[in-house]
Amino acid sequence: DSDLSMRTLSTPSPALIFPQNSHSFQNGRGSSTSSSSITGETVAMVHSPPPTRLTHPLIRLASKQQREQAHVDRLPDHAMIHVFSFLPTNQLCRCARVCRRWYNLAWDPRLWRTIRLTGETINVDRALKVLTRRLCQDTPNVCLMLETVVVSGCRRLTDRGLYTIAQCCPELRRLEVSGCYNISNEAVFDVVSLCPNLEHLDVSGCSKVTCISLTREASIKLSPLHGKQISIRYLDMTDCFVLEDEGLHTIAAHCTQLTHLYLRRCVRITDEGLRYLMIYCTSIKELSVSDCRFVSDFGMREIAKLESRLRYLSIAHCGRITDVGIRYIAKYCSKLRYLNARGCEGITDHGVEYLAKNCTKLKSLDIGKCPLVSDTGLEFLALNCFNLKRLSLKSCESITGQGLQIVAANCFDLQMLNVQDCEVSVDALRFVKRHCKRCIIEHTNPAFF
């Protein structure tokens, strides 16, 4: 909490101006539609703090009665700061233009632990430069309060913008740049090397990112020099489709503290990449390799080395995985809570049996589009997994109403059931509704409503 009296009121502050009717900036819990328009693109403009009173001869000052109607001015500073904490980034900048008091309050360090910018037209590099320059006012060249930067879908973000953040924000803990496809390995290197406390990194959709390490040479796979490690625990590389096993090897060697890793649609990853991952990252709790079509049962054998630490696993549309791979997971990962195996057509009732008997604490299971799973598999689930809350059987051709009734009679806590494109009767759906009153049923039967 900085002393407001120590602030330099003559220092300019940014006002972020947007094109008309564009949803550009978000922060916290809301978004806004701007009403100011200039040259058709979003830029950052700099202005001085507003004067204490209006002095233009053609502007009539508000009467005493009108001034008394501004009840918001009666709120104490701490209440105003609490109100400001709910505003998106752009609105907070605009509040700084109202009056000198609001200017001081809007730039309170407690309100600037997070910056959220979204939109394709924003000149993000310039906006980040202006914002960080103002936030570094009290501590030259260093912004100590900023911990979270979310820049989603900003296609104009480049390595220069990320370098600005990395250079000015050593206390950064969370960075999300999903959908910013101009980001490269160089920018990621700048961030992880200059922000040692970074724990959460989302580079989903950044197709140029193929490696995360403390060395500029992506080919170096061995452990970092001098024992240095990247402190990232959460890493989302969804849709980084250029990522290969060698890159995953480097990531694993440098990010040994990973607990959450998402590799959805990283289509070049194979079982060899997963083997590298399990050598270094033994603390993973959540792992997704959905749509990694080269991952097979041998990859499941490697993942099973996580044993009881693994709680979440997504192998959706990994067509090379069969009952053999499921058996590895069921045997060693007994504390599994979530499994998404949608589209794994090699899974049968035997695989479901292994899973149900060993992972009895399972809460969410998706075995949609597994045509070899029938009512027999559902019976094993019903008799062993009493804590099941979410079950998806979409497009399971062998499922009938009898299997659903067995599940409903034993899994009273069921909250979501997906039976779309399944041949189940209306009576069976009504039976589920009677026994699982909180259950939301997703179906394609027009007779049931």
TrEMBL record:
Annotated localization: Cytoplasm, Cytoskeleton, Microtubule organizing center, Centrosome
GO biological process: cell division; protein polyubiquitination; SCF-dependent proteasomal ubiquitin-dependent protein catabolic process
Main location: cytoplasm
Ranges of compositional bias, category Polar residues: 1-30
GO cellular component: centrosome; SCF ubiquitin ligase complex
Alphabetical list of Pfam families matching this protein: DUF7885, F-box-like
Protein role: Substrate recognition component of a SCF (SKP1-CUL1-F-box protein) E3 ubiquitin-protein ligase complex. During mitosis, it mediates the ubiquitination and subsequent proteasomal degradation of AURKA, causing mitotic arrest. It also regulates mitochondrial function by mediating the ubiquitination and proteasomal degradation of the apoptosis inhibitor BIRC5.
Protein name, entry field: F-box/LRR-repeat protein 7
